[in-house]
Amino acid sequence: MAFVLALFLSFLIGFSQGKLKLGFYSETCPAAESIIRSTVRNAVFADPNMAAVLLRLHFHDCFVEGCDGSILINNVPDPERQAFGHQGVRGFDVIDKAKTQLETACPGVVSCADIVALAARDAIVMTNGPDYPVPTGRRDGRVSNKSLASEMPDVSDSIEKLKAKFFDKGLTEKDLVLLSAAHTIGTTACFFMTHRLFNFIPGGGSDPDINPSFLPELQQKCPQTGDPNVRLPMDEGSEQTFDKHILQNIKDGFAVLESDARLNEDLVTKSVIDSYFGVLNPLFGPSFEADFVQSVIKMGQIGVKTDLLGEIRKKCSSFN
Ligand code: HEM
Ligand SMILES: *[C@@H]1O[C@H](CO)[C@@H](O)[C@H](O)[C@H]1NC(C)=O
């Protein structure tokens, strides 16, 4: 089954990827993908939440300047990494660790941007999500500027704004739903909950879309004057497993993040969610896993640099 899926996907990708290709390193660094996989594996064994952290890192890398490792840079003034829209993004140490090993095995060959994309895939696998072939050949960007991240999607954006920000990157409403479903793993800081729980309505009040049986629990975990760094799972009841449970939660008013809740209000995005819960699913309906894979591969192609605009960094946190 997984094999058939992989075959079908590589067929699709063959026609749609443009510049990247499967197995880009198969001649120049055959061990590349296995080195990255074992680094991710060790990191997730040591800290189970690292899977979510690495998946989020891929999203944040791709949405600013394309998937080019621009978020990894920390040796320039005002690097992109410090942007408000990247609040809480981590995982840099895992990418650096993989890069160190790759530089020993095949110096100057594997880009940091590809490490991020492959690590996200391996993180999904570690949480029982789908395995899939990742087209590679991204080169690392030469620009990292905090002000370029000002248009990151925000948790309090309207559904119209979320859609527009995804359209800008060549992603559809369907991609918005599927990629938001990455919140099937991981946690959020209470910092991102205050607006939704206490100031959603001018003058005070919570988001009416929160199921009334869920609201007290959220408010108790994230009290208005509590510690903003306390973390809570975004897919209540299934936060360690990569599955479509998050979409059921969104349908039922159990979304934790405000932006996830908005997906159930819009006709188009709601119909995408509902398509995974038809009476004939899972026998005949669309597969959440297969559709997610298509969307995440698409996200991984945003603004990729395969020419001399990019470089292969020696160290992921600094330009050559
Ligand atoms: C639709 C726009 C999106 C918004 C507004 C959004 C917002 C957020 C916020 C506020 C958090 C909590 C961060 C923290 O407290 O550390 C978060 C976590 C996360 N996001 Fe998103 N996100 C979006 C899309 C995505 C996409 C497209 C992906 C990946 C495909 C993704 C993957 C994740 C993951 C895995 C986490 C958990 C991180 C952890 O546990 O540390 N998100 N997101
Ligand atoms: C970052 O971008 C802003 C806005 O485009 C620009 O004014 C600023 O000079 C840039 N900073 C660096 C270090 O290039």
UniProtKB/TrEMBL annotation:
PROSITE patterns: PEROXIDASE_1 (PS00435), PEROXIDASE_2 (PS00436), PEROXIDASE_4 (PS50873). Substrate binds at residue 153. The record marks 56 as: Transition state stabilizer. Its cofactor is heme b; Ca(2+). The active site is at 60 (proton acceptor). It is found in: Secreted. CDD domains: secretory_peroxidase (cd00693). Removal of H(2)O(2), oxidation of toxic reductants, biosynthesis and degradation of lignin, suberization, auxin catabolism, response to environmental stresses such as wounding, pathogen attack and oxidative stress. These functions might be dependent on each isozyme/isoform in each plant tissue. Belongs to the peroxidase family. Ascorbate peroxidase subfamily. This is Peroxidase. It comes from Quillaja saponaria (Soap bark tree).
